[in-house]
Amino acid sequence: MAERSFEVVKPGLATTVQDLGRPGYYHLGLPLSGAMDRFALIAANRLVGNADGAAGLEAVFLGPELRFSADALVAITGAELPPKLDGVEQPLWTAFAVKAGQVLSFAFLKGGARAYIAIAGGIDVPEVLGSRSTYALGALGGFEGRALKAGDVVPLGAPTGPGREGTSLPKEGRRPVQESGVEIRVVPGLYWHRITEGAQAGFFEDTWKVAPEADRIGYRFRGGKKLDFVPRQQPFGAGSDPSNIVDSCYPYGSIQVPGGTEPIVLHRDAVSGGGYFMIGTVISADMDLIGQLQPHQPVRFQSVTLEEALAARAVEKARLARLAELI
Amino acid sequence: MAKTIQAPLPGTFYRASAPGEPVFKSEGDAVAVGDTIGLIEVMKSFTPVVAEEAGTLVAFHVENEDAVMAGQPLYDLDA
After folding, report:
1. Which end is more exposed in chain B, N or C (fewer Cβ atoms within 10 Å of the end residue's Cβ)?
2. Contacts with A61 from chain B: Cβ below 8 Å
3. Nearest to residue A117, comparing CAs of A56, A174, A46?
4. Is A62 in Cβ contact with B45 (below 8 Å)?
5. Cβ-defined contact of B9 to A213 (cutoff 8 Å)
6. Strand-strand pairing, B55-60 and B73-78
7. What pLDDT band is residue A179 in, cutting at 50, 70 and 90?
8. How many CB pairs under 8 A join A and B?
9. Angle at Cα B52 formed by Cα A83 and Cα B72, nearest 5°?
10. Range list of H helices, chain A
């Protein structure tokens, strides 16, 4: 066993090592990867005295069970997935001390979707193309390129930061988990003209629900009206379905609607291109929020301008800047 | 004394392994530790709901194909 490590007793549903991602390789087909809720990972890292980009764990819906080989400082943020230490509940958004031999587990999820587990010193898996993030579809990065399994022994780095037990992010500094009335802001995009005016209006009027297959690759939604396309003769190189285009790059956050039926918002492990039209792009400020949506949760899409998107980005930057004052 | 067992994760609850297949458990059935009670589908994977306690399954709180939240009551068990 590595000197500083934890052993996976139970892996949870799909627990992966993630940092802030692997930008710069999208043109080669390698997605960004990294935490779906970047704010939550950064906050967790700061609570334990790590650099923002230290690797932690992303646990979705169901928490793992981990036995620590050494004393450690741990913080859990993001989803309301209450941590327990040898069965005793611990606070969220707060650094707490774990003794060698103790077991970290979790109660049932109470809200949100993804919890972030930061450990002082970070998770010490090798960097691949500048990142420790797991891209499971490509078996790249993270712990052996995959989600954790029972029996894995995951190495930890040496803590060098100023982390202290009991450090907590006050409520006003956290992003609250939204249970209802979730609105995802969208800048209508490049292929907006491909659908009829009625379909354009319907997309933003309808209530959509998160499909259970939504994951790190894409968040799928269903329940709204099927989109009608403006008739055209499909151009050379495009497939025969009206939702097909000549292959194009897919931006992070872009919304494709295969067959016009179920919108898919591409997220951190998305494919980088293909032949589906895109209705628009979710603004960067709301991408973290998508990572916290549960299956069957109702959402609406809201149309915004590029100026409004930039203003929202500034609000998120300010939230991040406040972390430095609050922690 | 009946005990209520909760869903361990959110998703879609199924009482059988596939459409047309017999249900894993019916109300009134005996449950042994390790028995599969149902499946919860989320992120393209099916997680079995496995009994951690033995007893008699008194009642289901959810129907087949119902959307469930983590912590939502799934079934009552008479130990």
Report:
1. N
2. 9-11, 42-43, 70
3. A56
4. no
5. no
6. antiparallel
7. confident
8. 52
9. 60
10. 38-47, 197-205, 287-290, 306-326
> Which candidate from A108, A110, A295 shows the least CB-CB separation from B42?
A295
pLDDT, one tens digit per residue, over A32-69 is 999 999 999 999 999 999 999 999 999 999 999 999 99
Cβ atoms within 10 Å, residue A221: 26
Residues of chain B with Cβ-Cβ distance to A109 below 8 Å are 9-10, 69-71
Residues whose CB falls within 8 Å of the CB of residue A237, separated by 6 or more in sequence, listed in order:
A246, A247
Q: In the structure encoding, which two tokens stand for residue B64, read together?
A: 């087949």
Work out the minimum CA distance from A96 to partner chain B, whole angstroms.
25
Q: Say which of A13, A60, A110 has its CB closest to residue B71.
A: A110
Q: How far apart are alpha carbons A15 and A5 in whole angstroms?
A: 16
Per-residue pLDDT, averaged over B44-61, amounts to 94
At position B54, the amino acid (one-letter code) is: A
- Weakest mean pLDDT among A87-91, A154-158, A159-163, A296-300: A159-163
Q: How many residues does chain B have?
A: 79
| Interface subset of B 30-49, CB within 8 angstroms of A | 41-45, 47
Residues of A in contact with B44 (CB under 8 A): 213, 215
Helix (H) or strand (E) holding A264: strand A264-266
Q: What distance in Å separates residue A216's CA from the closest CA in chain B? A: 9
User: Which helix (H) or strand (E) covers residue A246, if one does?
Assistant: strand A244-249
| Sequence-distant (≥ 6) Cβ neighbours of residue B41 within 8 angstroms | A212, B11, B12, B14, B47
pLDDT tens, residue by residue, A11-20:
999 999 999 9
Question: Searching chain A, which residue's CA lies closest to the CA of residue B45?
Answer: A213
Residues of B in contact with A82 (CB under 8 A): none
Q: Is B11 left (phi over 0), alpha (psi -120 to 50) or beta?
A: left
Q: How far is A211 from chain B (nearest CA, A)?
A: 9
pTM of the model as a whole: 0.95
A156 near A8, Cβ under 8 Å? no
| A205 SS3 class | helix
Question: Count of residues for chain A?
Answer: 327
Work out the angle between the directed axes of helices A38-47 and A306-326 (0-180°, nearest 10): 10
